[in-house]
Amino acid sequence: xxxxxxxxxxxxxxxxxxxxxxxxxxxxxxxxxxxxxxxxxxxxxxxxxxxxxxxxxxxxxxxxxxxxxxxxxxxxxxxxxxxxxxxxxxxxxxxxxxxxxxxxxxxxxxxxxxxxxxxxxxxxxxxxxxxxxxxxxxxxxxxxxxxxxxxxxxxxxxxxxxxxxxxxxxxxxxxxxxxxxxxxxxxxxxxxxxxxxxxxxxxxxxxxxxxxxxxxxxxxxxxxxxxxxxxxxxxxxxxxxxxxxxxxxxxxxxxxxxxxxxxxxxxxxxxxxxxxxxxxxxxxxxxxxxxxxxxxxxxxxxxxxxxxxxxxxxxxxxxxxxxxxxxxxxxxxxxxxxxxxxxxxxxxxxxxxxxxxxxxxxxxxxxxxxxxxxxxxxxxxxxxxxxxxxxxxxxxxxxxxxxxxxxxxxxxxxxxxxxxxxxxxxxxxxxxxxxxxxxxxxxxxxxx
Length: 448
Ligand SMILES: NC(=O)C1=CN([C@@H]2O[C@H](COP(=O)(O)OP(=O)(O)OC[C@H]3O[C@@H](n4cnc5c(N)ncnc54)[C@H](OP(=O)(O)O)[C@@H]3O)[C@@H](O)[C@H]2O)C=CC1
Ligand SMILES: O=C(O)CCC(=O)C(=O)O
Fold this sequence. Notes:
Layout (H helix, E strand, L loop, with lengths): L2 H16 L3 H20 L1 H5 L2 H5 L4 E10 L5 E12 L5 E7 L5 H17 L5 E7 L8 H15 L8 E5 L5 H15 L19 H21 L7 E4 L4 H12 L3 E2 L1 E3 L4 E3 L6 H11 L4 H6 L4 E3 L12 E3 L9 H9 L4 E3 L8 H9 L3 E3 L1 H4 L2 H15 L5 H25 L6 H19 L4
Parallel strand pairs: 3-4, 3-5, 6-7, 6-11, 11-12, 12-13
Antiparallel strand pairs: 1-2, 2-4, 8-9, 9-10
Family: Belongs to the Glu/Leu/Phe/Val dehydrogenases family.
InterPro entries: Aminoacid_DH-like_N_sf, Glu/Leu/Phe/Val/Trp_DH, Glu/Leu/Phe/Val/Trp_DH_C, Glu/Leu/Phe/Val/Trp_DH_dimer, Glu/Leu/Phe/Val_DH_AS, Glu_DH, Glu_Leu_Phe_Val_DH, NAD(P)-bd_dom_sf
GO molecular function: glutamate dehydrogenase (NADP+) activity; nucleotide binding
C-alpha cells in the first residue's frame, strides 16, 4: 500500500469512528498532515499498524462525580481520564475543570500530550483528564468536596508508576492540594502521584512558572536560530490571564519586550504603556477577579468586552495562552495585516486549521503548542525525578534545565523538519520528532 494511502485510510477510519469528536479530529488531522514523509521512510510503521494504534487510546475512563454544594444540594458532574499512550513512560498530563470538557476535548488534549511529552526528551507517556465541573463562583469548601469526590474514583486508575496527573485550566495549587490529600487518605501512600504540588509536600520550584517561561525560552531560541532576532524591543499580544499567560508575560518583559494585552473569557485589556503584571497577579492570583478590574485600576488602559478581538491589536509577536481554537482564520489575518510575524502557542491547539494556513501563507514564525508549551510538563517530569530521589533542586537549577529542554526542542524540531524535507517548518518538525520516538517504542514493544 502507498504511504499516502495508509495515512488517508487511517484518518478515514478515525473520521468514521469518532466523527462526533471535532476537537479530536482536528488534532489528528493536523498531525497526520505532517506524517506522510515520516511513514514513507519507515515502512515498518505500516506493517506494525502504528498509526491505527496511535489514534486509539489505550484506555478511557468516564465516571460519575457526585458531591454536595453549600446549600446541601447534590450535584453530579462527569469525570474523565484518557490514558492514551504509555510506549515511552507512565501516562502524564493535566486535569481540566471547565464546563466545555467532554470526551472530544479530553481526547484531543491527550493525543497532543503524547507528542509533547516525547519532545521533552523525558520518559513520559500521554494522558489527560478532567471534568465539566465549573469552579467559578464556587466556595473553597465546594471545590474541596468536588476534588475529593473526583479523586475517590480517579485514584484507582493512577499511581506514581502508571499515571501522574497535574493541573490545566482551572486546576491550580488549590485543586492539586485537595486532590493529593484525598489520594493519600484513600491509598495510605505518600508518593509523587500528582505534579504541580505545593512546595511543602513534594512540589518543584519553577513548576508554577514553567509553561509561560518555557514558551518564551522556545520563542527566543526560534527567533535566534531562524531570524537572528530576539524579544528585545518587540510588542507582544498575550491572551488569557491564568497560569500560562501570567508567567509568559513576566518572562517576555524580562527579555525586553513590551506586552500590551491580556484577557479572560469576558474581554481583554489593552495597555499601551505595557501591562502592569503586579496588578494582573493581584486580580487573578490574589482574589480570582475579572480582568475588567485592570482598566478600572490602571489609568490609560482600556477594557474591551470581546476577548476574540485581542488579535486585532497590532503587535510583532502573538502568544495565545487561553484555550483551544481562540484564533480563527479571520483573527489570523488581522494579526498578519497588523504586522505580526511570530505566533508561538502557550495554550493547547489555539489556532484553527484556517489560522495555521494563514500563518503558513504569510511565512510567519509559527511555534506549535505541543513544542512551545512543553515546558510545563517538562518541569512536571523534573518534579517526578525529584520525588523519586527524595530531594529538591533550587529554582535556578530547574530553570536552567527547563531552558535547555526548550532549546533542544527547537533544535530537534528543526533537525526533523530537515530530515523529512521541510526545512525550517517547526510544526512538521515537532510532529515528526515527537512521533518517531513513540512509534519506534511501539514497534519494539510488540502489538497490543
Ligand atoms: N498549566 C499548564 O502547565 C499548561 C497549560 N497549557 C494550556 O494553556 C492554556 C491555559 O491554561 P492555564 O493558564 O493553565 O489555565 P488557567 O485556568 O490558569 O487560565 C486560563 C485562562 O484562559 C481563559 N479561558 C479559558 N477558557 C476560555 C475560553 N473558552 N474563552 C476565552 N478564554 C478562556 C481564562 O479566562 P476565564 O478565567 O474567564 O475562564 C483564563 O484567563 C490551556 O489551553 C492549557 O491547556 C498547556 C501546557 C501546560
Ligand atoms: O504537567 C503536566 O503533567 C501536564 C501539563 C499539561 O496539561 C499540558 O502540557 O497540557
